[in-house]
Amino acid sequence: MWDFHRRRLTTILILLPLVLISVIACKFSFSSPLASGKKSSVSSFFDSGKYQSEKPLNLVEGVDDFHAQNPASSPNSVKKIEARLVKVRQAIKEAVPNRNMTSLHEDPDYVPRGPMYRNANAFHRSYLEMEKLFKIYVYKEGDRPLFHNGICKSIYSTEGRLISELEKGTLYKTEDPDEALVYFLPFSVVMLVEYLHIPGAREIHAIGNTVADYIKVISQKHRFWNRSQGADHFMASCHDWAPRTTSYVPNLFNNAIRVLCNANTSEGFNPSKDVSLPEINLLTGEITGLVGGPSPSKRPILAFFAGRLHGHIRYLLLEQWKEKDSDVQVYESLPKGVSYQTMLRRSRFCLCPSGYEVASPRVVEAIYSECIPVLISDGYIPPLSDVLNWKTFSVQVDVKDIANIKTILMSISQRQYLRMHRRIKQVQRHFVMNPSPKRFDFFHMMIHSIWLRRLNVRIED
Ligand SMILES: *[C@@H]1O[C@H](CO)[C@@H](O)[C@H](O)[C@H]1NC(C)=O
Ligand SMILES: *[C@@H]1O[C@H](CO)[C@@H](O)[C@H](O)[C@H]1NC(C)=O
Ligand SMILES: *[C@@H]1O[C@H](CO)[C@@H](O)[C@H](O)[C@H]1NC(C)=O
C-alpha cells in the first residue's frame, strides 16, 4: 500500500559504512560535571535494503555518484540542511582513499588508527562532521512512564541510557524541529511491556497499537513524519520484542532508523538503515569496576562461558561442552564460590552465543574484561559494523562449528591472539557507557551510527 516511489526521498550514496522496573528509571550518577558537548541508499557493508534504488556505498569503497547539485539558495531549512550534507558526503568521500591505517585528522582526544577500523580516516572525518552538524529533535508528545523514560540498569540499560541522554539533551539536541536532521520517537518498549503486557499473553497488540497511535499523533501534529515517511526518524530499544512492536507501523519498520539490540536479520533488521545496539547488563547501573583486565600472560583458561539454556544455540553449546573440558570451560551455572567476573578475566576467549535473541550482553562483558569475544550466532549484525572490522578483534564461529570450537581457538597463534588483545583494549572505548558521555564512547558511537544512516537519505519538502 505504501508505495515507495511516492516517497519524496531519493536515495543517495554514501558512506562508511527483567528486571526491576523503577519509574524514575534512569537514576544514573552523573559524577563528572564536564558533560561535554552528539534514503536513498545507506551505508552498508552488508546487503543493501530492498528499497534502495541506488548502489549502496560504504566507508571502504567510498561515496560514489551522488547528487552534486547544490540546492542552497532557498530559504527553506530542509534545503539548507541537505545542501550542507552534500558537502559532508563529499568530505567523507575525499577521506576514503587514504588507506593509511591512521586517521590524518587531528584530534585532542583520540585518533582512530589500526586495522580494527574499516577506514580510520573516513570514520574520523565523518565523526568530526557529526560533531559540527548533527542535531536531534526529541518529540515532546507522550507521558511518562511509557515515554521519555527508560531503565538504566539491567540488561536493558542501553535503551534507558539512550532515551535519558537524549531527553537530557546536553548533546546534539535542538529545540527547533526545523533545524533537526533527525527526529527521536521517545517511547520505551521495555516500559510499554512492563505496563501494558498481560503476563503470559503471546500477542502484543496493546504495545504495538500504542506505538501506532503515537506515530499517528506525531504525523498529524507535525509535518516531519509525512515528509520523509519516517526515514529521518529513529527509535531505540533493547527489548526482544522491539522488532515486533515496530511492525505495527509499516513505515516505522521499513523506513525509520531502528536502533535495536535484537539486530536479527531474520526478523527484518536491515543493516543499511537500522542500527545494532549493544546489550550491556548493568546490575547497579554503574560501570565502575567493570572495565579492564589482566594481561594475556595472566589468562590460563582458553575459553569460558556460563549461562542458562536459552534458545537453540546455547542448547548445542551446552550439549557439546558443558563441564567436559578444562580448556573450554562451559557452565550452565558456575560452581559455588567461582566469580563470573574473575572467569572473564582469567580467560583468553569468551564465548558469546545468542540466547533467546541474537544479541548477548557477553559481547560487551568480554570487551570490558579484555577477553576476546567469540560470536556464535545466526543472522546477528554486531554493533558498529559499519565502522569496525570485527574480524580483527573477535572470532566468529558458525553454529555448525560449535563442536570445533577448541580446534578453532587453538589454531589462533599466540602472535595473533596478542594482536587481538591489543585491539580489544583499543576498541573498548567505543563500548564504554560513561556516566557522562565522553567523545568516541558508547553514546557518541550510537549517535554516529544514526548519523551515518541519515547521511544516506535525502529529504525533500
Ligand atoms: C600514515 O600516517 C602516519 C601518521 O600520520 C604517517 O607518519 C605515515 O607517513 C603515513 N603513511 C602513508 C603511507 O601515508
Ligand atoms: C500525514 O498523513 C496522514 C495520513 O495520510 C494524515 O492523516 C495527516 O493529516 C498528515 N499530516 C499532516 C501534518 O499533514
Ligand atoms: C532470529 O529470527 C528468526 C526469525 O524470527 C528466529 O527464528 C530466530 O530464532 C532468531 N534468532 C534468535 C537467536 O533468536
TrEMBL record:
<feature type="domain" description="Exostosin GT47">
    <location>
        <begin position="131"/>
        <end position="412"/>
    </location>
</feature>
<dbReference type="GO" id="GO:0000139">
    <property type="term" value="C:Golgi membrane"/>
</dbReference>
<keyword id="KW-0333">Golgi apparatus</keyword>
<keyword id="KW-0808">Transferase</keyword>
<dbReference type="Pfam" id="PF03016">
    <property type="entry name" value="Exostosin_GT47"/>
</dbReference>
<keyword id="KW-0328">Glycosyltransferase</keyword>
<dbReference type="GO" id="GO:0016757">
    <property type="term" value="F:glycosyltransferase activity"/>
</dbReference>
<feature type="signal peptide">
    <location>
        <begin position="1"/>
        <end position="25"/>
    </location>
</feature>
<keyword id="KW-0735">Signal-anchor</keyword>
<dbReference type="InterPro" id="IPR040911">
    <property type="entry name" value="Exostosin_GT47"/>
</dbReference>
<keyword id="KW-0732">Signal</keyword>
<dbReference type="InterPro" id="IPR004263">
    <property type="entry name" value="Exostosin"/>
</dbReference>
<comment type="similarity">
    <text>Belongs to the glycosyltransferase 47 family.</text>
</comment>
<protein>
    <recommendedName>
        <fullName>Exostosin GT47 domain-containing protein</fullName>
    </recommendedName>
</protein>
<keyword id="KW-0812">Transmembrane</keyword>
